[in-house]
Amino acid sequence: MEIKPLDNDTIFAEVCCIGGNRNLDMKSELTEQERTALRSVQIKLEWLKKMIPKGLSAKIAYEGEEAVGFIEYMPIEHSNFHKGKDLYIINCMIAPHTPPWEEPQEQRIPGCGSALVQAMIENVKDKCKGIVTPFGFAYTEDMKDFFNKFGFEEFENEGLKMLIKRFEPVEIPSPIRYEQKYQFRQVPGKVVIDIFWSSKCPADPYTLLNLRDVCKEFGEGVVINGFCVDDRETLVKYGIESGTYVNGKFPWSTYGPLEKKEIREVLTNTLKANNSK
Ligand SMILES: CC(C)(COP(=O)(O)OP(=O)(O)OC[C@H]1O[C@@H](n2cnc3c(N)ncnc32)[C@H](O)[C@@H]1OP(=O)(O)O)[C@@H](O)C(=O)NCCC(=O)NCCS
Questions:
Q1: Mutate to test the pocket of ligand 1, among 44, 140, 148, 198 (most ligand atoms within 8 A of CB)
Q2: Are residue 108 and residue 10 in the same domain, yes or no?
Q3: Rounded alpha-carbon distances, angstroms, from residue 251 to 76, 182, 188
Q4: Max Cα separation, the chain?
Q5: What is the pTM of this model?
Q6: What is the CA(35)–ligand 1 centre distance, in A?
Q7: Which pLDDT belongs to residue 99?
Q8: What total of structural domains would you count in the chain?
């Protein structure tokens, strides 16, 4: 296994490197889902390119030619959700494990996660006073014991619970909270979808693209409003971090990426309910 820096040769692998999307760019034939995933990683790619000059970086793990994991981090000053300085924050990380959707089950590469964290520490230790991270990410929500092995400790500040690894004394960050101001605006005779999405993880654009495609199938009966929350102004205006609302309600059983099938089901039922009023 080799850990490579984020550069022109590895950037595409970084954005593709989640679960089922892994190494999409290397596949010769793509399924419909993979084509949508590829469109969504392009959106993340654009965001990443904007963030790199601001200090965002990453390390990518390779097994031979194949990218198998990554860790992405940036100066906390660019986080929309934390007040802090002289710290880096881990945006996301992944090493081979078994996410729920993957068939056949993926083989762990013992030591991969550790190698990524150590490479990140080496990269930032002279650029900041410490690193903070959430307790875990999407499918491994509790990574506290994993991060403890590298000297990360738990802290709580104004309700913000995270882990910190200090290189020198540093003020712990506090949360930025947004007041929820979003109000559903009805359009008579139509189903209205409001999606709040960010480019930070390809999962959100994946839902956005699926929603747009399915809305086209439904024609004029459905209206879609997309709100990109990459910048703070939109967060301040609406106070919603992410989520897809249908007629002002959250009808999904998951906060994860939405597939076309479940979108069609919800829209069909909502249109039926609208028509029977
Ligand atoms: C957590 C994760 C990074 C661990 O990767 P890994 O390659 O298995 O890590 P390592 O092999 O380097 O593990 C180092 C040690 O931590 C332990 N460890 C691994 N995952 C752990 C966890 N979740 N909690 C506690 N300990 C853990 C290992 O057993 C190992 O212990 P040892 O030193 O006693 O042998 C990996 O499981 C992962 O990426 N999970 C998914 C994260 C995710 O959902 N990301 C977002 C996707 S969108």
A1: 140
A2: yes
A3: 33, 17, 20
A4: 64
A5: 0.94
A6: 29
A7: 72
A8: 2
